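Our preliminary data section would be incomplete without showing what the modeling component actually yields. Below, a chain of 452 amino acids is followed by its predicted structure, encoded as tokens that our downstream tools consume directly.
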Amino acid sequence: MEYELLWAEFSPGLWSRGLDATEVHFRSMGATAQPYNREFGLLSIVMNIDFGGIDPVPASRDAWKALRFHNPLIASSVDGSKRYYRVASEQELESWLEETFIVHTASESYQNAEQLRLDLGPVRRAQLHLLPQNHELLLHIGHDVMDGQAMLLLVNNLLQELCSPTAEIKFGFEAANLAPPLFLAANIPTVTESTEVQVKKAINDWFAALPWLSLKAVNTERPPGNTRAQRQKLTETETEAVIAAAKVKGFTPTHVVEAAAILAIAELDPDSANKSYGSCGIFSLRQQCNLQWQHAVSPYLHIYPLVIKPTDFADSAAQLKDYYQGQRSDMRSLLSLVQPTYQAFANMASTPPAPGSKQMISLSSLEKFEPLLQSVHGVFKLEDLWLMYETPNAVVTSFLWTREGRLSWQVMYNDNYYGEDTITTWITTTKRILFEGLGIQGLEGDAVQAAG
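Predicted structure:
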């Protein structure tokens, strides 16, 4: 099977390889929302950039072109069970730019990039949209090509190219930069009977804990609406207090924020008694990849079922710590579970439930943005960004990160199944429980923000 995953030139200028189980999983998951012209897990970044007086149109176009050379996977496409990349001739390059680099003028109806994002559906290849009047860029890309950390790397590369453009780009040789799939980059072991049994048991235990703690979804019989986002951004003082208090108790910010979020759901859910929290743990495998590919723009991550029985704050955080550290304590064992886990989840996606019936909460920690993403490159500055994850069902997804000394927790939800007030209440309740659990008092930070 390994040779099928190797990039190979099977006709002049046209390269292809098979898909690994990671890519199959993300594509299967994305296709569950196809009847609604949505793609579950589709990734977007809305960026507000200070261009330092530089004309954003030619600068962004040239930077996007350079990103293709250095990260040609963004210009690849999938047909059936194969991923294809065509080496860029002058004609192909212009055709690709016309398809994927799109400038939206002030005369159009979009007031900002968030409004534009709501109108965008699934894409064949990654797109970069520019709203020059707002100094906004919108990157729109499939999860089978990208993960959260890869998006940070790509944005950082974009800012680098804006600031210091690559002097000479010779298309025709960029196929050497095609990143391998996770299974080759991290030398993922093949499936064994024992790993299949272990994964099957974990998934059975996961489902046995249903119904999980969740926010109360409404209109569950209806098709999905739009994915929206809200964010709680702690001040630097609040962030320092949270990190310090968590460290004293032996926890990371991820442990304590997720514990607070779980207990907030339990407080808001009138039927929470005796319910478990079921979700998926998400683990970056970049450090396990061959050194050449640790900064590649590609999805190099692992997911695994997570179930805990929440009690009080300290015990819930301890259970989460035991889960995450237990998974990471033996990386060889963790890597051996990657293929059977992705295969099992891809099989489940082949018979998806109705969108409104799939209710789950998840938290993915992107940790500290720096040094993967530096906000200032010369005269160019990344003022703000929203990382968006398309949720065309009743799943509520969230990202946790620290940027420029401030901890942010961003929650994404479908507006047909959850009202804005429901999400705001959950976020504010989470912050209260977090501060109470850590013994933090006397700090009044910023209000919850909504995307757009």
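The CA atoms of residues 46 and 386 lie 5 Å apart. The longest strand covers residues 380-389. Preliminary results of this kind motivate Aim 1 of the renewal.
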